[in-house]
Records
---
Amino acid sequence: MSTSGTSLLKGKRVLLGVTGGIAAYKVAHLARLMVAAGADVRVVMTDAATRFVGPDTFAALTGNPVHTTVWDEPGTVLHVRLAHEVDLAVVAPATANVLSKLAQGIADDLLTSTLLESRCPVVVAPAMHTGMWDHPATCASVEALEARGVTIVGPVAGPLAAGDEGMGRMSEPEEILAAVEAVAARSTELAGRRIVVTAGPTHEPLDPVRFIGNRSSGRMGVAVAAEAHARGADVTLVLGPGAVTPPAGLHVMRVETAEQMRDAVVSAAKDADAVVMAAAVADFRPERVAEGKLKKEAGPPEVRLVPTPDILKELGESKGDRVLVGFAAETSELEASGRRKLLAKNLDLVVVNEVGREGTGFGFETNDAMILTRDGDDEPLRTWAKRELAAAICDRLAKRFG
Ligand code: PMT
């Protein structure tokens, strides 16, 4: 809960989505806590949720009508109205079913249609039996939602429905409230800021079908873009080929080569407050691109490589007030190499990744990395989930702009 004494939810319009799990009875208490914190709570229940708790309970607690179907307000497009009028959405309890629908973009009831239309920050509090929580389908849904910037609270281990025990119990309402308050606080931290983020590899063509590339998946850059967007920034994502799908709400510029990435970044950076270069830009490209497919019969081609533009260096040379964040992919002497790049490219912050080991960095879910900054707000080498590292970068951007 807020430690400052001023509620972070005061005046916020919160959509509370209740889905069909026994933990729905505890969500009545969550609704009460959010109202007490000053939020204007609008409840949407699925059909299944109404079998656990009656809509009148939530109507009495929130002072607002509770909606259960898209047809509740003939004459208005209810899911669109709700989607646009709320500042934040919470789904509690969130069943495996609703997680999967949100991950897939299925909109077959009022709650899922509203959340598909909305671009507000979303917090979900899963609750289900252990087998459902551990199922690869649920794991994939949770991963997809996290990659889009959705905050997942819990679940925790403990007593479940039908007298069972295990992982899958919904977090307590007070804990969900704390997460909702944290998201509310974060959601405006970068409001009014324009941030350019790059993600993914570049492909440097050899002929019409072949290229020189690297193993970057784009996850790291997309995580930074999603986090900055969740904090209210206006984000332009310059995205290399074959990279992960970015969340809605970003301006996405798709590029293929280092040259194209340079042009996109330089143009987007003109009125940006910060640029975060998480892309793995090729340092070299083939000097010549063959017009036709290189023939095997002609023998191995001799390929002369020439340097690509160093985008970050160019940005550093005309830095002005813009905050510049770089990444450094290193296999040895991490700190020394990182400090060299911080100075050589005129950066404010560099994330130094240890790469070349199985399980971390290029293409994986985690990064073994340290953060080095000009102002000493450093973090030693450790393993980070990419979204956690993205949050640490955005914390520093917010401090810088604060
Ligand atoms: O995409 P993922 O699978 O999630 O993997 C994430 C990542 C490992 C690719 C990412 O965390 C990362 O380290 N990105 C930068 C990789 C890299 O190109 O490092 P570098 O040390 O070669 O380059 C240093 C910096 O200069 C980088 O910010 C890079 O974007 C930038 N650069 C590099 C070359 C170039 N021609 N222009 C540049 O601007």
---
Amino acid sequence: MLTPLIAGNWKMHTGIRQGADLVLKLRELIKGVTDVEIVIAPPFTSIYHLSHLVADSPMQLAGQNLHWLKEGAQTGEVSGEMLADAGCRYVIIGHSERRAYFHETDELVNKKLAAALRAGLKPIICVGETLAEREAAQTVSVVSTQLRGALAGLPTGALKDITVAYEPIWAIGTGKTAAPQDAEDVHNALRELLFELLGSAAKPVRIIYGGSVKPDNIDSLMGQPNIDGALVGGAALKAEDFARIVKFKAAASEHKA
Ligand code: PEP
């Protein structure tokens, strides 16, 4: 059983003060949670400040993106080394919004993954299909191509710290969630592919689900054997909602009692 990972992607929301308020509320609400790994990905401008506020809490920081070079004449970009220096332990790579609005290809995702590993960051690699692809029964082939492209040519031993986030594009920010069994089927296919590509190095790799995860659907999603956590967008900006998502295990044991 892998330790679940719940990651909050704040996208381009929150200034420094708002982000600090959110972290301080979360600190209280998730105090003592040790059975889940918790990551938040604020905008770059807040990371360093928040690194002081998450210290001594169960929260770790992630970047939402990185450039593949360590440094250079790349106006407006931030490297993995800079993210690590600012306090990040994780980085999100290949989010569908980056793929759609910033033309990120599987080749670019692959370069960014190598850069994250070079910088000592744990990458969360996003894959997911459009609604048209799902309706054409292409989901597994689309996400498999994305995952193969992301991992291409990288030494398997270096990949044990990766996380794969399955995020159906049609479910992101729309309020529509994949049915738990449909998500489970895709996670299962991704798990098989990871074992095919990485052999035993695939054992510690978590596959998390993203796409309108909320307090009212986290329990059924986490009840699936191959769903190892969640990547949460909108609900990560509401302290109570994110805390409830993080505390899905406690809710499950209360339910049983
Ligand atoms: C995301 O941005 O990765 C995401 C899943 O967003 P939301 O939870 O708002 O759908």
